[in-house]
Amino acid sequence: MSEELHFETVTSGASDDFNKVTRMATAMVTKWGMSKKLGPLHFEDDENKLHKPFAEATAQTIDSEVRRIVDEAYAQCKELLSEKKKEVGIVAEELLSKEVLSRDDMVRLLGKRPFDENKDFVKYFGGGDGPVGGGVGGGKSAPPPFPTESTDSPPENPSPV
Fold first, then answer.
1. Domains of the chain and any CATH numbers
2. Strand extents, DSSP E, 4-136
């Protein structure tokens, strides 16, 4: 979508994105029950089978639901990228000089997010009023907490038999 908005042609590099979004929308409909028309059903997709585990009418419904999801995502993406065209340009200019942008770079370029940070995100990655990365670990993310109980190992002091 960004290429479509910013350039005269769309490159073949977007084909992988098209593949991913189509696979994800298909999984939403056929595996995760995220279609109001089909409901909470799961259809196995076995390429080795000659017949699909559903009727042709269901296949057409699946196709139309996948198309609807992709079209809605396309429209939302187009609206967002059009609305944020200036910001996309700022980030693109920075990427011309730096191959990778950090969270610090994004905050510097675009400012803080217009909504509150997720508490777990702030806990592990920072994002408070101080420097990005928070006070824990001097700007580095904290490791996730260790599990409090392990059920995979035998007891520490087994009783003699």
1. 2-83 (1.20.58.760)
2. none
17-22 contacts at long range (C-beta below 8 A, 24 or more positions apart): 21/70, 21/73, 22/66, 22/70
By residue count, the chain amounts to 161
Question: Which residue in this structure is represented by tokens 């994800």?
Answer: 24
**pLDDT confidence of residue 116:** 76
pTM over 0.70: no
Closest CA to 2 of 96, 103, 79: 79
Cα gap 155→70, rounded to integer Å: 51
Both tokens assigned to 16: 């992988």
- Spatial distance between the Cα atoms of 24 and 36, rounded to a whole number of angstroms: 16
Angle, CA of 63, 68 and 70, to the nearest 5° = 95
Can you tell me the distance from the alpha carbon of 6 to that of 9, in angstroms, rounded to the nearest whole number? Answer: 9
Q: What whole-number distance in Å separates Cα of residue 130 and Cα of residue 120?
A: 16
**pLDDT tens digits along 27-60:** 999 999 999 999 998 888 777 777 777 888 999 9
Name the residue with higher pLDDT: 29 or 7: 29
Q: Which two structure tokens, joined as six digits, stand for 64?
A: 């139309």
